[in-house]
Amino acid sequence: MTDPTKPNPSKTIARFGVKLLNALLYEQEPVPADKRKEDPRNPVAGEVVVVKLVDGKPDAEKHRMFIRDLSTGGCGLWSRTRIEPGTSVLVHFQGPDNENVERMATIRHCRGQEGSGFAIGVQFSVEAKSKNKKKAA
Fold first, then answer.
1. DSSP string covering 59-126, please?
2. The model's pTM
3. CATH of the domain at 110
4. Enclosing H/E stretch for 10
5. Which pLDDT tens digit goes with each residue over 25-65?
């Protein structure tokens, strides 16, 4: 029988693991308060497709990533693939009206390590382009 006054070792280990993961991904290279994004971030959950741009043209390789947050100026992604900061990319996702949206962007940071995954910060560079253009009535 377990003693309710003592901490559960498995819960303690899980909490420690989450704290360690957060420290590895989010607390390294802290961003000064005056350099943080000014756009409010909205938490979202979904999947996006990221394509690197090579000499201004989309690369053939597509990377599926999870989107964590979204703002008018960029988004936060979670990926198994590392993409170097400064890389130009196209981000494809489903828009609010179920339209396919493609945004040009630049990778601002990529934190994490192989085997654990990467938290990636993306800054959009141009206005959205909808692939499903609605016809005017």
1. EEEEEEEEEEEE-SSEEEEEESS---TT-EEEEEEE-TTS-EEEEEEEEEEEEEETTTEEEEEEEE-S
2. 0.65
3. 2.40.10.220
4. helix 9-26
5. 444 444 444 445 567 888 888 899 999 999 989 999 999 99
User: How far is Cα 4 from Cα 50, in angstroms, rounded to an integer?
Assistant: 48
The token duo for 65 is 């990533």
DSSP 2: -
Residue 2 lies in a domain: no
Residue 7, Ramachandran bin (φ over 0: left; ψ between -120 and 50: alpha; else beta):
beta
Is the C-alpha dihedral spanning 122, 127, 128, 131 positive or negative? Answer: negative
54: left (phi over 0), alpha (psi -120 to 50) or beta: beta
Domain count, the chain: 1
